[in-house]
Batch of 2 targets.
Target 1
Amino acid sequence: MSDVLLARLNEIADPASGSGLSDAGRLDGAVIANGVATIVLKADASAETESLKAEIEAAALALDGVERVRIITTLQRAAGDAAKPTPRQAKPDAPKPADLVIAVAAGKGGVGKSTVAANLAAALAKSGQRVAILDADIYGPSIPRLFGLTDIKGLRKTDSGIEPAEAHGIKIVSMGFLTKPGQPVVWRGPMVQGAIQQFMNETDWDRPDVLIIDMPPGTGDAQLAIAQTVALDGAVIACTPQDLALDDARKAIAMFEKTHTPILGLIENMSVFLCPHCGEPSEIFGHGGTRAEAEAMGVPFLGEIPLTIELRERSDSGRPVAFDAGPVPDAFNRAADAMLVSAGEARKPAPGMTFSN
């Protein structure tokens, strides 16, 4: 279907060159999934962009199986204008959706990043904070399952914007609400970036105290684009104690440093396995590696999260364990408190700096 869509769009003439849109390089992606045609259009400064978008929408809706059209526009770079790291102060001056916007990231998958993000949010909500989560893990969204929202089909859009789902008092937006179970999202970087920006800027978040962004794993184009375009107050890096995970955590830290995003701290997930029978800890992935790495890099260490049967059961059942009582919830509570302290420190101006309103 995507090939059919591209062929149809290439029948539309680019106003600047007269060539088809695809031949003219005006398209960064075009896919059809679940009746929705998603098209990434490279915009230019001409006044013809809006009329071109209307023509694209009409052409896409004329195809069998297309019920709705989503057009994401991106700016074309001038020749030789290579992508450069963007300092925090130079990010777009758009209204922030929350008082604190914090990314939870990992240099690789499989370290429990989404579980950490969900339980940090739960710990904050339990302490009385107004919390929201943006599930930016477009390719493998886990937040719906972690909050028991696997039966939600679609997101409503009102005059105020996209209406987030809600569980345990936490507002949630995820690509998992827009795809069928087991269906992969096969999108290129610009499409992912556009979807994240749409979720961020067009959702009616109702100004929570903290917005947690569950980042995609890795350090590719999508991750860098989010770090460059979203007004982040800081990032938390989740990893396991083993050297393999720490190697990738360093890459995640380096990515955020390139965009001048403060590292609020490291969390050691799966620090030890607590036996459900005897309570004895087993250091399956080693132990203490994350604390040592944080000390070596001069960034805060936010805490150790043990691996337990209860944590797995609560995650599968859709109730984050941080809402309960016990060693694991206490560990998440301490990590969330330390994260807020670190965010407060990151907001303080450096000596000699002044800010004007």
Note: Residues 76-92, 350-357 have pLDDT under 50 and may be disordered.
Target 2
Amino acid sequence: MATAAQTNERNHVAADLDTSRGMPAIFANTGTSSFTQFLAVAAPDLLPGRRPLPPGVTAEHGTHATTIVALACDGGVVMAGDRRATMGNLIGSRDIEKVHSADPYSLVGTAGTAGVAIEMVRLFQVELEHYEKIEGATLSLEGKSNRLAAMIRNNLGAALQGLAVVPLYAGFDLAATEPATAGRIFSYDVAGGLYEERSGYDAVGSGSLFARSALKKRFRTGLPVDDAIRLAVEALYDAADDDTATGGPDLTRKIYPVVMTATAEGTRRLSEEQAAAVAESVVAARMENPGG
């Protein structure tokens, strides 16, 4: 439990961030390797989960991002997300990006309240970079997944009012003895519970039930990266086929899923041309066999 002095410091330190008199003292003190913990002291109102919310459920006022899939492959992991965000029965955005590089060897995708999710991803990216700068070393993949779990727990109050974020985290484990099986996937619940997916694939979001079912039928251990990319896009197609909140490839507007990989060479995002080629190939195949 915080002492009276610590509580008083938290109440007043944000006011001391005025840089007109030079660097604030808090930046010169020996600090923690966790940027989130530093921010909780320096400016707690900047943390998503610390902001006061009006009473009642507020989910209907936010835009919600939907389906993300991830699967392990030979040499790493593939993660892909559709581009639709919804506001109730309306389409809030047709080209939102839900899959991001967390650091050079890992990926994070988010489903839930879009604004909070984007902010959480940015904070997570800074968290990992801050740790590396302070400690002079990178966190293990388990350590990174635990840091993300703590952020989700800190957002629990907002989640209970409807502003929930449920991410999917995956990456290439630099400590793995076998690079071919170094791809690992972690899922979370709304309270910050952390679970490693041993099946080799997972999905989150409103279309996750359909995407996971598609992956379950066709996933095989050791899939080549290109095959895993196509399977991820097909799973998103199946999700969009049965879930109105998930957007399929938009050939008219040329809006395609965001697809990223994490391997020993680092993270990589497929170019628009590459994503278009895969998505258009999937759509063409479904014209002949709608059920896949």
Note: The chain has one domain: 61-288.
